[in-house]
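Example 9 (inverse folding). The structure is encoded as follows.
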């Protein structure tokens, strides 16, 4: 199943309190339960003014529907084609490159 990186522009995201982040996570999980098991939230990264989220979903429209129902921005949705990390430099080139959504870890 494809993985997607969602860029959410949220002014002041990096200054959100743990309680605010918990509320956002709870809302996201509630919407995910309603949408069903075909869409999964993997993790998110909070920066000063954006939150980057990784989701597993069958397609981009489902990712955007999650955002719509949750009231979250989805300024950019990109399908993850490959994942690389420092161990990729040590691989034989067959494990990381071209393995959609999987890592050479």
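The amino acid assigned to each position is listed next.
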């Amino acid at each position: 199943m494809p993985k997607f990186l969602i860029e959410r522009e949220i002014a002041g995201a990096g200054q959100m309190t743990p309680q605010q982040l918990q509320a956002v996570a709870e809302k996201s999980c509630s919407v995910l339960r309603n949408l069903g098991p075909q869409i999964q939230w993997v993790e998110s990264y909070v920066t000063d003014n954006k939150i980057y989220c990784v989701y597993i979903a069958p397609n981009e429209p489902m990712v955007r529907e999650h955002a719509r129902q949750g009231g979250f921005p989805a300024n950019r949705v990109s399908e993850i084609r490959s994942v690389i990390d420092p161990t990729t430099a040590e691989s034989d080139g067959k494990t990381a490159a071209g393995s959609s959504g999987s890592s050479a870890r």
